[in-house]
Amino acid sequence: MVSHSELRKLFYSADAVCFDVDSTVIREEGIDELAKICGVEDAVSEMELVSRLQERNVQVFLISGGFRSIVEHVASKLNIPATNVFANRLKFYFHGEYAGFDETQPTAESGGKGKVIKLLKEKFHFKKIIMIGDGATDMEACPPADAFIGFGGNVIRQQVKDNAKWYITDFVELLGELEE
Question: Quick check: is 138 catalytic?
């Protein structure tokens, strides 16, 4: 078991930080955002945190059970390369009709976020990966993530609040940790 102070040290010294997207980086669930055409302009503290992590040479990834087309839009707003996005791909027939989603994506499966983190560790040899998110699937990604930080700034999920060793409601708290 990692103590709260050890978790803070892990965050400070992380090689990579993975964020959930729906209700974490963006305020709403992706399906709602799809209807609104992906508005993310109000994600100021999220942008600042991502920028600060990148300045420290920390790799930032977005891992979502949502739709890649939305998540890539969010990533571009946050200056995260599309190669650092893991989400479900929508499939369409040639005439434009919806054909489902790509079931070969790891995020399409149960435990998919953990599978992505395991893949990142194998591919990039990261020693410390932190997962940040609002939901049970984010929390379940630890392990293989080295630590989990629960986020309740948009939606409070009681299970996450009760079980996360570190639970925040504003990314400003994490920005403060990087300044110490």
Answer: no
